[in-house]
Structure formats: C-alpha cells, structure tokens
Amino acid sequence: MVMDANSAKKVKIAVSKIGGDQTTNNYVKFIKKHIPNAECINLYTTPIADFRKVMQECSGFVLTGGEDVHPGRFGKENQVELCEMDLNRDTLEIEAIKIADELKLPILGICRGEQILNVAYGGSLIVDIPTMHKSEKIVPHRDTTNKNLPHSVNVEKGSLLYQITGKTRGEVNSAHHQAIDKVAPGFVVSAFADDGIIEAIERENSTDKPFFLAVQWHPERWESKEFSDKIGQRFAEEVKKKK
After folding, report:
1. How much of the chain exceeds pLDDT 90, in percent?
2. Whether 220 is catalytic
3. What CATH number does the domain located at 11-242 have?
4. What is the rounded CA–CA span in Å between residue 25 and residue 146?
5. Which residues contact 4 (CB under 8 A, 6 or more apart)?
6. With contact defined as beta carbons under 8 Å apart, do 13 and 35 qualify?
7. Which of 111, 132, 139, 205 is the most buried (most CB within 10 A)?
8. pTM assigned to the model
9. CA 107 to CA 91: how far, in whole Å?
10. Active site residue: 93, 202, 220, 238, which one?
11. Which residue is catalytic, options 70, 141, 176, 218?
12. Residue 57 burial by CB count (10 A; 0-12/13-18/19+): exposed, middle or buried?
C-alpha cells in the first residue's frame, strides 16, 4: 500500500523565524514543496529555554531572511545607524545554531540566514554594500521595488553547491544590503557575484559532518531549478537521512 504524503508521519523542521500565516509564508511553502509531510516549528515564538527539547525532535534547521545582524556581534558597533535590527532574534538564532550543531542537524541558511551563520561561527559582515563595497562591476543586490532582483553568480567547481546545481554560473535573486566580509573559520566560499560579493558558503571539510549550505539569495521565491529547486531537493534528502 502506498502511503499518501498527507498521512505520512510528520517530519519536524526547525525554522528560525516564520512571519505571518504558515499557509502563506514563502519559506514554509518552499520546505513543504520538497518535504510534503514537514511540520515547521517557529523558533522565534518558542521560549529559548525550550530550544534543545524542541530541536531534538527536528530533522533539519532552516535560517530565514529578515533584519540585519547587529554589527556589535562582529566588532563594528560604530555602524549601527546603517542597520535595522532585532536584537532578540540575533540572540535566539545564535543559540539555535549552537544547538543545531551539537545535534548534527542538516542546516540551510537563506539571506540573513547565511549572514547570521557566518557571524555565529566567528566571521564578519559588510554592513552596507552600497557605501562600503567598491567594485568596477556594478551588481544590483537590492531594489525595494523588486523582490526578485536577478543577477549572476559564479560557483566554485568541486564545491557542494556545484555538486547540487551542476553549474559554474547561473542566475539568482537578491534582496539585501549586507553580505559576508570575513568568512568564518572552517568554512569556504562556494559562490560569488561578479562584483566579488560572497553569495554562498559551505564547510571547508564536510567529511563525516552534517549538511551545511548557506546562500545569499532567496530560493524560496525563485523559479530557477538549479539554484532553487535543486537546493530544496538536496536539503530534503539530507533531512530524510537524519529522520
């Protein structure tokens, strides 16, 4: 007998922040597209004291986009005026990242998710790309009138991202003004934009370690099969292994 996806046992996925209704949230829809029986747990509304208990029941962790990471987290306190922050969210996510690491959960970071992961492991950020990143090539990273602002990325051959997409170059979508500056120890760049902005990071050595991929773009609202669906499919495969 073939079990219907809706009747299958739920697979719990920890999500750093789910805004609005779960039926309309793009991150939830993206997760459920690839894991139909997923139950998404909103850590933002979960007491931090319960994180470990809740996450022990989860098979994966997704860090979503949103507010800027406080610059004081990476030694740039004097640049806070350029940011819109949620200090509570920073605290919650850094604690959740620590627990996810200890539990060996597959991790997928998206936009802010990539940034907070890099900061949590000891890296730093460019606080404002337009004023602090100079390049001969102009790449549009944020346009408040277009949430799917497209540009090209270059993928390092031999990386996990290359293994997933099969591409060394492709189109993604951006909506951010911050980006990774110094990459955290233990991680490497697997994609970058034509202006040099880091677009994806992964583990330097993934042998015997859980899945980890963090991207600067928004696969949850992009139709590119290589740089959206294939990432979701791979995350689902890793979650299945953990389950």
Report:
1. 70
2. yes
3. 3.40.50.880
4. 18
5. none
6. yes
7. 111
8. 0.91
9. 18
10. 220
11. 218
12. exposed
